[in-house]
Amino acid sequence: MQTLIKTEAVSLTGLTKTFSTSRTKVQAVKGIDLQIPTGQIVAFLGPNGAGKTTTIDMILGLTQPTAGAAKILGLDPPQAVSSGRVSAVLQTGGLLRDMTVKETVTVIASMHGKSDRINAVMERTGLTRIAKRRVGKCSGGEQQRIKFALALLPDPDVLILDEPTAGMDVMARREFWSTMRSEATQGRTVIFATHYLEEAQNFAERTILMSQGKIVADGATAELRQLISGRTLSATFTSEDQGEQAATFDQSVQITERNGSRFAFQCQNSDRFAAALLGEYQAYDLEISSPSLEDAFIQLTKDAS
Amino acid sequence: MMTTYIRVEFARHFRDGYNLIFALLLPAAMYILFGNIPSYTAFDLGAGNVKFYLMISMAAYGAAVSTVAIAGTVATETMQGWGRQIALTKMPPAVFVGSKMIVAATVAGISAAIVFALGAATGAKVNEPWIWGASYLIVLLGAMIFACYGIGVGMVFKSESALGLASGLMVFFAFFGNVFMPLEGGMLDAARFTPMFGYVALARYPLLKDMPSGVEMAPDPLWMPTANLVAWAIIFALFAVVATRKAKARQ
């Protein structure tokens, strides 16, 4: 057998961050161990306050870990950043409103020593059209595209995006991810934080779920999806008896909530059960919902403890 | 990388003229206003005339305010996340601050130059020509201590309106620093401890140096304004460092 010595794109060992104020201590990240091989596309999924941004800040060397270490491509974060091998789209701010789009790209390109890439990157991220506009006059989606362009300037091996679509509408999100897909993925390691389950599903091969500073699940996105894919069906029946009868449809059906003649069920085959509810059991006002990410977290954190 | 950044900084500041109106035009306007009151401005004073004295005062005020306004943007921009954006490039933060200082010094230089040019055109006079250059240099170099003040205030309040406050306070410092009008008695004694006193007194020293002590408007001995300037430079520098550390720790 041949042994391949391959440097991990990102390697975290016992990464911990505690913020102390005069009164309280908040442990934002509680000891994370993680290996991400080169070329992988990984989603950090978690609700606000899960520690995603703090973890990313430590990977980029913007925040010093309280304990543990982060390595990028075997290098310390500041080295990796100054060599241009890692770059990032940061979550908040990061742009000056009174600069034009072109000025912003030019200035950051010069700081990377990559002024030759300005036009190519602007063209590819669709900024040429709005080059002379001031950043403050650009929409949220356009501002994210600017930040994305800045991150592409050094032509990095590892690209980190911290909630790149926060505050965008659905159309802008879709457009962002399609640009992202065509421009950023050739052989790059991509790590992005999001709280949209949908984005993880569509884009990442591996998803890491974070909650309260810890990793609560880590695996192929498809597996994770199954883990939290049970659907809830709610319907109103002509009588309570009808509802109770419906619960015997098959083994997997369970009543999760009842309120008079309105019932909520959980089941595995929601399509067939829904058809039966409307036909056989004469139910009406049918609602089918996927569990929210928050529900999934509650479930997973319960399982973990 | 520094030159590109400085070039874009200038483009920004001059495009948004709004910010610079106070820095560039107000001191010039005040000089025209106060410097041309015929009742006293043509009088001799020290090695020159009253107009020269007023010209230095207004130039010093303008240079200091420009420095505060531009240096302060180091703080507000850092807090807006621009600092993080820069931290993701090769450029060290010191180059960022350095570029800003060059821009601040240039704008301060222009502001003072406008007032000096107006002075030269409207009859500010001095017997020894070197005093023109010496006064201008002291105005420009001394203004740099207010950069730390601007950065400190920006870091504490983290907003652009804080810079308005910082510039506003400069008017107060100028009044109580004997910049706008000559103070007397107890007010003058108190003024000797305020931040702009040493700066403007040093800038006027070449003009007033030969006046016998005891005469009205005679300068303090050289060590007094020097001590004031050095002390405030240290205070502002410490303030900027402490405020920056606190702001970064909370980030």
Chart the SSEs and their pairings.
The complex is a heterodimer of chains A (305) and B (251).
Chain A: E1 8-20, E2 25-37, E3 41-45, H1 52-59, E4 67-72, H2 77-82, E5 86-89, H3 101-112, H4 118-124, H5 140-152, E6 158-162, H6 170-184, E7 189-194, H7 197-203, E8 206-211, E9 214-220, H8 221-227, E10 231-236, H9 240-246, E11 254-259, E12 262-267, H10 270-278, E13 284-289, H11 293-304
Parallel strand pairs in A: 3-7, 3-8, 5-6, 6-7
Antiparallel strand pairs in A: 1-2, 1-4, 8-9, 10-12, 10-13, 11-12
Helix pairs in contact in A: 5-6
Chain B: H1 2-15, H2 18-34, E1 44-45, E2 48-49, H3 50-87, H4 93-121, H5 130-143, H6 145-157, H7 160-176, H8 185-191, H9 195-208, H10 223-250
Antiparallel strand pairs in B: 1-2
Task: Please describe what this structure looks like.
The complex is a heterodimer of chains A (305) and B (251). Chain A has 305 residues and is an alpha/beta fold. Helices cover 34% and strands 29% of the residues of chain A. Chain A is built from 11 helices and 13 strands. Chain A has a 6-stranded mixed β-sheet, with helices on both faces. Chain A has a 4-stranded antiparallel β-sheet with strand order 11-12-10-13, covered by helices on one side. In chain A, strands 2-1-4 form a 3-stranded antiparallel β-sheet, with helices on one face. In chain A, helix 5 (140-152) runs parallel beside helix 6 (170-184). In chain A, 40% of the residues are buried. By secondary structure, chain B is an all-alpha fold. Chain B is 76% helix and 2% strand. Chain B is built from 10 helices and 2 strands, in the order H-H-E-E-H-H-H-H-H-H-H-H. Chain B has helices at 2-15, 18-34, 50-87, 93-121, 130-143, 145-157, 160-176, 185-191, 195-208, 223-250, and strands spanning 44-45, 48-49. Chain B has a two-stranded antiparallel ribbon. In chain B, a hairpin with a 2-residue loop joins strand 1 (44-45) and strand 2. In chain B, helix 3 (50-87) crosses helix 6 (145-157). Chain B is globular and about 60 Å long. The model of chain B has no long low-confidence stretch (mean pLDDT 88). The chains are: A alpha/beta (305), B mainly alpha (251). Chain A binds chain B through residues 60-62, 81-82, 84, 87-88, 90, 92-96, 98-99, 103, 106-108, 110-113, 115, 150, 154, and chain B through 1, 4-5, 8, 11-12, 15-16, 77, 80-82, 84-91.
